[in-house]
Prior knowledge:
The complex is a heterodimer.
Chain A: H1 4-37, E1 40-41, E2 51-52, H2 56-62, H3 65-97, H4 103-115, H5 118-129, H6 136-143, H7 155-183, H8 188-195, H9 200-228, H10 232-237, H11 249-258, H12 263-290
Antiparallel strand pairs in A: 1-2
Helix pairs in contact in A: 3-7, 3-9, 3-11, 4-7, 7-9, 9-12, 11-12
Chain B: H1 2-30, H2 34-37, H3 51-58, H4 64-94, H5 100-110, H6 115-128, H7 135-159, H8 163-171, H9 176-187, H10 189-205, H11 208-213, H12 221-231, H13 236-256, H14 261-265
Helix pairs in contact in B: 1-13, 3-13, 4-7, 4-10, 4-12, 7-10, 8-9, 10-13, 12-13
Amino acid sequence: MPTIAQRERRFALMLLAPALVVLVLTTTAPLLYLLWMSLQRVDLSMPALSGFAGLDNFARMAGDPRFWASLWLTLIYTGATVVMQVFIGLLLALLVMQIPRGQGALRVAAILPIVLAPVVVGLFWRTFVLAPDFGIVDLVTRWLGLGSHNWLGDPRLALMSVIAIHTWQWTPFAFLVILASLAALPPDIYEAARIDRASAWQRFWRITLPLIRPAIVIVLIMRTMIALSAFAAIFAATGGGPGTATEILNLYAYRTSFSELNLGYGASLAVVLLAITLLISFAMFTLRKAR
Amino acid sequence: MKLRKAFITAAAAVILVVWSFPVLWALLTSFKTERDVLAYPPKLIFAPTLANYTDVLFGSASLLPNLWSSFIVASFATALAMLIAVPAAYALARLEFPAKQGTGFYVLATQMLPPVGLIIPYYLALQKLAALDTYSGLVVIYLTFSLPFAIWLMVSYFEDVPREMEEAALLDRAGRLRALWHVILPQVRGGIAVTTIFVFLNAWNEFLFAVVLGGNRVRTVTVAMFNFISVEQTLWAKLAAGAVLAMAPVILLGLLAQRHIVKGLTVGAVKGGGRR
């Protein structure tokens, strides 16, 4: 006769088994396969040369300026979008807390960018927002006398534009999470601070910010992860171009694998991306636990 | 003080416009003729037409098969994910078993893998199985992101169920499975509905897997939209009508689950990365 604990264990295993089998097959197994592939030479345009290559792909990467450029772009893209999302999101949430009515309308509007498919957002910006002579941004800059620009076609503007697209779509995320955290703060702390004649600035630094820090940290972590795996919006807006002006590591790995059909090198690029993602998430979670 | 309030209200109004602009603009443009679309300055008042919609739905490059593909893939992926995730989430939330922490962390970690890293193995695997451009292939691959998400969101709902409920059910000598089915599940009905909505939404919006692993037979609406612009770049009004059709389901679902969206967005992270 099995004990109660044993029965519970058996029941848990029964409930978990399907999920674990599926996750091992669809994430762990492909991951191992990816690691193995990154050590291979698999070039579909030159299949005769395929075979084990050891660390050749990674050695090639070290001397590949396009790789270093894409790595740099990844860091800029991730850093800029995350910082702007958190900063603007926080600012807007603080602002909206001040208005008694109309918060509901903003909460609804905030949902619109979030639920849209990134690929549709990228397309929309490429056409209706940023297209020269037609997009709304171009209309505004012409109206302001700043002239018409090829926002996505000019290598100097393209990176800024794709950063703006990502920031536009995901700032509402930061806004909603921080707003929820602000709304949950007990009002009586502020009363006490007001009696103590604390200035608005002091109230923010000493009371509000420490209390909503957990929410901000959550937003930081999640948005960093998402920015590191960003793909569809850039793919739709610029395809990584013009040239390689917006080619973050994701785009480079994709282009190498599926446009140039060099799957081995593409896999090794993906492995580097994976390593960076794990490293950053590990660092962030460690920092968070330390506090 | 009055000035300050006016400033804040004005700022809020600007944000409102900036966030809702694409949806409203696409909606507006979709009822214009191509000639009206190109008018400068943009027309806000014009004679509306439904021609773009009839064209996009029933014309030569109809989006209907793509909407259907998206619906099939997203529905089956969601149903399958929920079927597997709900029991797993219950075990993670309520049962004691060895390596429970590790299991929870594993589920969370699988969510962090960048899709671009997995797409090469998926492509080669589906090619070997002759499952490229099939519904079943894409549905299974969609589980990779649907399942961990669904598990973690459901865990948070199971944890809200008072423990006394299941203790009472177990004392009644009902089997564990029956207690789960008759007592616990009805308690998390709302959570199941919300999770279903978010999983469906994510699946509907997916692009990378669909464009690489799909093809002529299985072409989801996100892929079709992408192809649309490369083929017919200048047909703005038709593009807008297509975008409205692609956006409508997710906007409706998003508004339906509006109150739960913060929970849906931060799932997993709140728990401190599997520190349970």
